[in-house]
Amino acid sequence: MIAETEVTAELHARFGEAAFHEQSTVDRIPTLWVSRDTIREVVSYLKSEVDQPYAMLYDLTAIDERTRTHRDHQPDSDFTVVYHLLSFDRNEDIRLKVALHEPSLSLPSISDIWTSANWLEREVWDMFGITFDGHPHLRRILMPTTWKGHPLRKEHPARATEMGPFQLPDEKQDAEQEALHFRPEEWGMKTGGPDTDYMFLNLGPQHPGTHGVLRIMLQLDGEEIIDCVPDIGYHHRGAEKMGERQSWHTYIPYTDRIDYLGGVMNNLPYVMAVEKMAGIEVPERVEVIRIMMCELFRIASHLVWYGTFAQDVGIMSPVFYMFNDRERIFDIVKAICGGRMHPSWFRIGGVAADLPKGWDKMIMDFVQYFPKRLREWDKMVMKNRLFKARTVGIGEVSKDECVDWGATGPFLRAAGFQWDFRKRRPYSGYDRFEFEIPTAERGDSYDRAIVRVAEMFQSLRIVEQCVKNMPAGPYKSDHPLTTPPLKEKTMLHIETLIDHFLGVSWGPVIPPGECFVGIEATKGNNGYYLISDGSTISYRTRIRTPSFRHMQMLPLLSRGHTVADVIAIIGSIDFVLADIDR
Amino acid sequence: MIDAYWPILMIVFVLAVVMTIAPGMIWLERRMLALWQDRYGPNRVGPFGLLQVAADAIKMIFKEDWIPPFADKATFILAPCIINATTLLAFAVIPFGPGWHISDLSVGLLFFLAMSSLGVYSVTLAGWASNNKYSLLGGLRAAGQMLAYEVFMGLSLMGVVMMAGSFRISDIVEAQQNVWFCIPQFLGFFLFFTAGVAETHRLPFDLPEAEAELIAGFHAEYSSLKFGMFFIGEYIGITLISALVVLLYFGGWHGPWFHPVVWFLLKVFFFLVIFIWMRASFARPRYDQLIAFGWKLMFPLALLNLMVTGAVVLAMR
Question: Which of A124, A147, A170 is where one domain is finished?
Fold first, then answer.
């Protein structure tokens, strides 16, 4: 039996108990099934009427339930749409699920309640073919417009080898090229105002200022931006689909490549979610090692942002200094993990190896060396008057807008909202560390820079505390599902040998369940919503990434500014294309 | 005999010097930037990577010279020629030492201003003829920027002209026997140098090409030797501005011990390095900020400089 939480009591009081069906999940987030006729009312009640409202639409996704076997006590459903809401006042989440049956795969859109639902609903339509009635512009978002099928449906092939040879006859090529033609109406743009014709400027997908394969259509009046529409999906590699064919263990390297500047920090929410479902408690040493590596990667990621941001506003040199120092971090990462950008070093139940000899000296040298450099760059970049002229007041956004659009991380904190998952929901033992959460006030491009620079100092503080207080103990937990398992006893008992053999050959079998774990990643809140069907692979892997939400805000940030400002704004968002498209 | 051939000798000399400095600048710039940015720069081809320039030149000559089908062909070809022609012509009035000049025009300075004004056509026409939106934006920016900076460039020079009482560049140099004009005309020097940087569209005034936003701006569609001409044209322009700064404000060829030409070249070299140094350290302002800076601050300052100098020159008489 599930203990009734405060929010379920409130919902029962408002809509009656019959309107909901409650489901228990591993992550203990209250999960309620709602009918598609009431979902809009429930959502808007939770957003605006209830005390301590659920202000953020944290995630919106779907599950293809048709081949799922372990569905104990859940209502019958072919496809399930999942709404994940977050309340800052309560520091609690709620998950709402709507069951849909074939062939009627549609439900009302909530994009008028939350602007951020716009892209999320488009994604669900693109991936599952579920339509949202009342959506202003329901078209494909990640897949090309000519794509046939909906990739995250179970019947859609996961590998190119299942799809037959690729052919491009002339007619198909012509059709594909025709589909690439830009027609403003299809993008929801006007071609002219009352007395002007607008100029459309195609920025990207091959443009140095977009930091990757991102395309933005700018609607210009002179150099002033009337509107812009980001076109994403060029970096879409189907990471969520891959989750449904890789074993729990072999999926770890794929997570590294989501926010590809965050390295092992991407492993963390994934392995924590799996560990939760498996019931693994990791030793304290593992927690501290993980935090230490994550914070080093946070600095490395912020350094890339710092340098490229400076370059975006035309300062040529800092990027070289920052990449040089990032190289120093990679020297440490190399010594510890053996890899550089994508070490895939965390494991289910621990980390891949113990710390090497001399690791502490390497890190302490860096901790002592780095603050001086940061202060030097402060003079070079942050106090640079031209830099300020280009960034202060550019791309301003308020706290409420951030919350409404689902912005997290430094983006949200720059708008004056002190919310950091490391402090508010300490995971992996962050509560044992002393650090501060830097914030700023105006929420413009410059403030986002201030927050990130201050965060580097704080990360350094955490790393230093890790080195000074590294607990002794094993680097993997002693649990049958730890992968690969500890080897000490393997040659002694037949049971552990079998466990080891199965864990390494098949991969671990994770008990059925659902679990979400989110962390404060480099760019904002990164989380994994995993569903296990009691098998060696995940039934559904949903990756909630911060950059997707932030990119959706670009038109809001850049309207009324100039082309040059868009580049500064893009730089200040600090996104990674793989983190948007997955 | 030598007198009759002197101008021809000088033409050869000036062309040789300029055409050595300009490609040399490519190497120097890449090596200096690398030095300031903790990296090596080109160091593989030849001693210290010096032959990198030769390698680049060979590559540039043998690349396909492509003219986009949507471009306005005649203008497209004309544009890169203009910048080279005007900057090289301006060198005709630059004396490298006493008597070391192609033509000592009595209106030398005006000739230089005329040539540099013509130079803007190159960039604007290139941006327009390319028929590419990025190039067009670059060309537009160039036109706006030139307009804003051309005006006070001319005005800022008038202080020097008043003090020397001549438009002839050699007269201006001679007038600096005792004190370099950079001291009484400090403001004028600052204004002219700023305008000069804008004229050559180098950072922080490189908005027409702004690689972060417009990628290459006005010359985005250019390839092969036509691109090379823009490339070299830019460096000749930098050399020209440096030479003028030296002649007008830093005593030209005056200096002890060495031959005047050596002194002149040394001083020019110093300013060339300043140009590179600025590129390594400045941020790029936004288009409207740049134009506002030109019209609202630099232009009034140039007028002020003109009036104060005029008043002082009158009072001294």
Answer: A147
